[in-house]
Design a protein that fits this description.
The protein is mostly helical. The chain is built from 17 helices and 2 strands. It has a two-stranded antiparallel ribbon. The longest helix has 38 residues. It is elongated, with a radius of gyration of 30 Å.
Length: 376
């Protein structure tokens, strides 16, 4: 009896030991196979093979790959060695589960600057984002949205709300189109789509007309901002009257849509308008999540100022045979009689001229001073 019990204990012990050895062996081999897969994402199955393997449970398999990818990023994120692997894996996940929004947003959040990777690799990130728009947004709603040019009319149409399952997909895509691909027109398209989703930042509505300004269409951008200010839902009557005069009234120098060129008197008139608007705005109830007439008006002023400076540069070329280096140079040459100030200038910004692109933008005064030193 004792011998039988002892033998049983020995057998069980051997079985446990062998099982441990076998498990360790299998784990080590699995790690080797896994490391090869991570180093060579081409070893991942294609969508057709993965669908066959899943036996109809494609969303479950997509979830498994998704969890694995998140764990992998967590262990390798500091050296960004995950980049090659996740592009292939996200493609696979979204083929298995096309309406799974998280992979699209993650890939756009992790996308590196375009100048730090190959053109092919960056286009792969962008193509996945565009794939997200195709798979998770309503094509019918998008087509309808892009046909409406008046933004106030667009935003008042409840039937076009939430065209995408996740508004951050077109929002992040627009960001990369502008900052990496330098394509304001395409960025405007995606910002417009994103603006109809209730889960995107309210400030996206400021970015749509801003893209016109970034293309050099400052007058068009300013008029759009003024139209948005006119339709803003707040009680700053001083702002609404100022906007109305700039858009529609006849017979005054400040009627922006009816003057052929922007003059110094108009800049002074607008500056006075803004002072009165800000006094009134100080008495308004603070609405941090709502864009006001004053918010849009300030953006319109910036575009009017850059339109004014564009025209001043044209005169500089005609009179002096060259473009001026900045606002002070235009003033010193007598081409302008007032230097426009950036509205809401709490960060000491000024209008700076970029001689390479022949365009104006808002920069810090420190950068402008350094530029002036270089040209003098």
């Amino acid at each position: 009896m004792r011998n039988t019990a002892l033998l049983s204990v020995i057998c069980i012990g051997c079985a446990v030991f062998l099982s441990f050895i076998n498990t360790e062996y299998l784990y080590k081999n699995w790690k080797i196979i896994d490391s090869i897969t991570l180093s060579h994402p081409e070893f991942l199955p294609d969508a057709t093979s993965a669908i066959f393997i899943s036996a109809g449970n494609t969303t479950s398999l997509a979830d498994t790959y998704w969890i694995r990818m998140i764990q992998y990023i967590g262990s390798t994120g500091l050296d960004r060695s995950y980049q090659k692997y996740i592009l292939s894996l996200v493609d696979l996940i979204t083929d298995l589960h096309p309406r799974f929004t998280s992979p699209y947003t993650l890939i756009l959040l992790l996308a590196p600057d375009a100048d730090k990777v190959s053109k092919w690799e960056f286009s792969h990130y962008m193509n996945i984002g565009k794939k997200g728009v195709e798979n998770t947004c309503s094509e019918e709603k998008i087509n309808a949205i892009l046909k409406i040019s008046n933004l106030n009319t667009l935003w008042d149409d409840p039937s076009l709300e939430n065209p995408c399952l996740d508004g951050m997909i077109p929002y992040l895509l627009a960001y990369h189109e502008f900052y990496d691909n330098h394509d304001p027109a395409m960025a405007k398209k995606y910002y417009t789509i994103a603006s109809m989703n209730t889960d995107t930042p309210p400030a996206v509505r400021l970015l749509i007309p801003l893209m016109d300004g970034k293309e050099g269409f400052h007058r068009s951008s300013a008029i759009t901002f003024l139209t948005l200010a006119e339709g803003a839902d707040d009680t700053n009557e001083v702002c609404h009257r100022g906007v109305w005069s700039l858009l529609w009234e006849d017979g005054i120098s400040g009627t922006y849509t009816r003057v052929s060129s922007v003059n110094s008197e108009l800049i002074r008139t607008i500056a006075k308008m803004r002072e009165e608007i800000q006094v009134e705005q100080a008495h308004q109830e603070d609405t941090p999540m709502q864009l006001t007439c004053s918010d849009y008006f300030d953006r319109a002023i910036r575009q009017i100022h850059m339109d004014f400076l564009d025209q001043a540069q044209t005169l500089s070329l005609e009179r002096l045979g060259k473009y001026s280096t900045g606002t002070e140079a235009l003033f010193d040459a007598g081409i302008i009689s007032i230097i426009p100030e950036v509205p809401g200038n709490e960060t000491h910004t000024v209008y700076g001229y970029n001689p390479e692109t022949h365009s104006w933008d808002i920069i810090t005064s420190v950068i402008q001073e350094a530029s002036n030193l270089e040209t003098n």
